[in-house]
Specification:
Largest sheet: 8 strands, parallel
Strand order of the largest sheet: 3-11-10-8-7-6-5-4
CATH superfamily of the largest domain: Aldolase class I
Number of domains: 2
Number of helices: 11
Order of helices and strands: EEEHEHEHEEHEEHEHEHHEEHHH
Shape: globular
Helix content: 25-40%
CATH topology of the largest domain: TIM Barrel
Strand content: 5-15%
Length: 360
């Protein structure tokens, strides 16, 4: 490649002129504001379904109803703000997974991204004439092949694309703690592995697009992933530090303030490791001090409320609202590199400038 501009990301008949998927970030970090701004900048804007109803006044009293209502409203708000491509991120581990998928499809969402478990039954929610694209999020070629085979055998449906997420991502990670620094699981290793694993499932002259995420930070990083064969990239950390991110300014500023050594890998109550910005809340948890709570609804299948030292949904909700003394911010490995908060349009322009410069 030379220094010319990047190629568009194509997922079936969807064409994003900017080959960037803005990663879905719950609880309430990426809603209609961030998603629509990303879509307007030519990328794929993503609303996170996880815990979205907790932002409603009755979020704890009517968990199921509030989540459906909030997701429907955020999709509609985003549609009013952009004519671009919109997606929803729906974690398989959500106990209301089916409700969220049905709601997103009813609202005509362009893409459903789904990870935190294997979305083996996702195609069963589609009806004839529905144009919503289905994109699993995986952390290995083996998982990608398993999903592709299952979907083809059971539903005669070929996945529209895959996101492969490496161990430098923020939030919950699809790896064991000891794999996080192992070169075998580095994103630059995983991308070719997933592409190769999907080759047997590709149509004639139509490979399944692979989108690389987890640690992609600069335009040069984007070029590296595209040169490895990725069709696009997923980025989340960079989009937190934007004017349009739906989190409280204090949440965004925690990224700006973070330095090297301020991130840690936590043992999440949902049974996965996660990467977060260290703060007093997490220090208290590590010291064995619990944050008492009652579980109004078992929102994550893998969470054991009886043993959890705190409610992760409540902690993330507090962080989203800027109450970082009662919660914490998930973040990718590159969060300490964030220096300032900028408009989404400027972020995308700078990434494209870096991309061009890296090809010279």
């Amino acid at each position: 490649m030379n220094g010319s501009t990047w190629k568009a990301l194509r997922i079936g008949d969807l064409v994003a002129r900017t080959p960037i998927v803005q990663g879905g970030m719950g609880v309430g970090i990426s809603l209609s504001g961030l998603a629509s701004a990303t879509a307007n900048a030519g990328g794929i804007g993503v609303i996170a379904a996880a815990g979205i109803g907790l932002l409603e006044p009755d979020g704890f009293a009517d968990f199921l109803g509030a989540n459906i209502r909030a997701l429907r409203r955020e999709i509609r708000r985003a549609r009013k703000l952009t004519k671009g491509i919109l997606g929803v991120n729906i974690m398989v581990a959500l106990s209301n997974f089916a409700d969220m998928v049905r709601t997103a499809i009813e609202e005509g969402i362009d893409v459903i991204f789904s990870g935190a478990g294997l979305p083996v039954n996702l195609p069963e929610f589609l009806k004839v004439g529905v144009r919503t694209k289905l994109v699993p999020i995986v952390s290995s070629g083996r998982a990608a092949a398993l999903i592709a085979r299952r979907w083809l055998d059971k539903y005669a449906y070929r996945p529209d694309a895959f996101v492969v997420e490496g161990p430098r991502a923020g939030g919950h990670l699809g790896f064991k703690r000891e794999q996080l620094e192992d070169p075998k699981y580095a994103l630059e290793t995983l991308v070719p592995e997933v592409i190769e694993a999907l080759t047997p499932f590709a149509g004639e002259d139509a490979p399944i697009p692979v989108i690389a995420g987890g640690g992609v930070y600069t335009g040069a990083d984007i070029r590296e992933m595209l040169e490895l064969g990725a069709a696009g990239v997923q980025m989340a950390t960079r989009f937190v530090a934007t004017d349009e991110c739906d989190a409280d300014p204090a949440f965004k500023e925690s990224y700006v303030a973070a330095g090297e050594g301020d991130l840690e890998i936590i043992a999440s109550p949902v049974g996965m490791p996660g990467r977060a910005v260290r703060n007093k809340f997490l220090e208290d948890v590590e010291a064995g001090r619990k944050a008492p709570y009652s579980c109004p609804y078992h929102c994550i299948v893998t969470c054991d409320p009886e043993k959890a030292p705190y409610c992760i949904s409540l902690a993330l909700l507090n962080a989203q609202k800027g109450r970082l003394d009662k919660g914490f911010a998930f973040a990718g490995a590159n969060a300490p590199r964030v220096e300032k908060i900028v408009p989404v349009s400027r972020l995308v322009e700078s990434l494209e400038e870096e991309y061009r410069a890296s090809g010279n």
